[in-house]
């Protein structure tokens, strides 16, 4: 099998991210994390930090900045690491030291160093879709996100809320619940297509 990625949806309330590198890539990755949870906990370690990133840090008490070179002890408070320095050896060292502590690593421009990729993310209320091209074409992942954003109705969350009400109503009777939910949602694929 050539595409063995397994997508999971990570809860970010308690997850602690370490981002190493404060250039364009560090900035992009911080923005990506904040877009999903503006309160996400980030420690940012970088020798130099772009002014645009400084601005974001100043506006977020949940981001701590350490303006210094990366050290192994930076991993002490990390659950996930994003290595975004312009030094491939440093990125490799981060990967090796993090993995020896069972911490997962994303290395922005080195897929071979990644334990996980960041996906292109569609957000419509409680609906979230993450797209990956198995590392082959991030730009296509972005295009597919844009396509899905256009095609999926903005009021999809109203439907999700209603289905959730119905779901709660059937608590305890699993078979009846599944039957009812299947019947209600049967036309849905078709209606999205006809939109
Ligand atoms: C492997 C991966 C690792 C990771 O970063 O997690 C990776 C790696 C690399 N990206 C590169 C370039 C670009 N990345 C983007 C954009 C995104 N890249 C993202 C994810 C991933 N990028 C992971 C695989 C995802 C998958 O499986 O599909 C997205 C989806 C999520 C995010 O980063 O938030 C986000 C879109 C978000 C959105 O808008 O929806 C664009 C387009 C743009 O910016 O519009 C370009 C320029 C065009 C191009 O090159 O395609 C390069 C070459 C660098 C060089 O040439 O120097 C590498 C390195 C390499 O491939 O060797
Ligand atoms: N800028 C872009 O859009 C893209 C860049 N890349 C590659 O990704 C890498 C990073 O790119 P940029 O963010 O643009 O680079 P950059 O040069 O703007 O930033 C690099 C950052 O790494 C920090 N850094 C370097 N060594 C460090 C260390 N030992 N400890 C802590 N921080 C350290 C620097 O202080 C700086 O904040 C580069 O190798 C680049 O070629 C890949 C894809 C796209």
UniProtKB/TrEMBL annotation:
Keywords: NAD, Oxidoreductase, Porphyrin biosynthesis. GO terms for molecular function: ferrochelatase activity; precorrin-2 dehydrogenase activity. Its EC number is 1.3.1.76. Pfam families: NAD_binding_7, Sirohm_synth_M. It comes from the Bacteria. Pathway: Porphyrin-containing compound metabolism; siroheme biosynthesis; sirohydrochlorin from precorrin-2: step 1/1. Gene3D superfamilies: NAD(P)-binding Rossmann-like Domain (3.40.50.720), Siroheme synthase, domain 2 (3.30.160.110). Residues 125-150 form the Siroheme synthase central domain. It catalyses: precorrin-2 + NAD(+) = sirohydrochlorin + NADH + 2 H(+). One of its GO terms (biological process) is siroheme biosynthetic process. It is an enzyme of class 1 (oxidoreductase). The keyword Cytoplasm does not apply. InterPro entries: Met8-like, NAD(P)-bd_dom_sf, Sirohaem_synthase_central, Sirohaem_synthase_N. PANTHER family: SIROHEME BIOSYNTHESIS PROTEIN MET8. This is precorrin-2 dehydrogenase. It comes from Flavobacterium rakeshii.
């Amino acid at each position: 099998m050539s595409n063995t990625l397994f997508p999971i949806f990570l809860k970010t309330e308690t997850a602690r991210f370490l981002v190493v590198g404060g250039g364009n890539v560090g900035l992009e990755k911080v923005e990506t994390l904040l877009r999903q949870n503006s309160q996400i906990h980030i420690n940012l370690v970088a020798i130099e930090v772009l002014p645009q990133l400084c601005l974001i840090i100043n506006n977020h008490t949940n981001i701590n900045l350490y303006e210094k070179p990366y050290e192994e002890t930076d991993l002490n408070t990390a659950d996930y690491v994003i290595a975004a320095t312009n030094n491939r050896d440093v990125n490799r060292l981060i990967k090796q030291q993090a993995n020896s502590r069972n911490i997962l690593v994303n290395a922005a421009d080195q897929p071979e160093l990644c334990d996980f990729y960041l996906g292109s993310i569609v957000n419509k209320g409680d609906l979230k879709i993450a797209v990956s091209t198995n590392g082959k074409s991030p730009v296509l992942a972005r295009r597919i996100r844009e396509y899905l954003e256009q095609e999926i109705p903005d009021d999809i969350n109203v439907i999700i809320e209603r289905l959730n009400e119905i779901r709660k109503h059937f608590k305890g009777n699993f078979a009846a619940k599944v039957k009812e939910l299947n019947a209600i949602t049967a036309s849905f694929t078709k209606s999205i297509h006809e939109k």
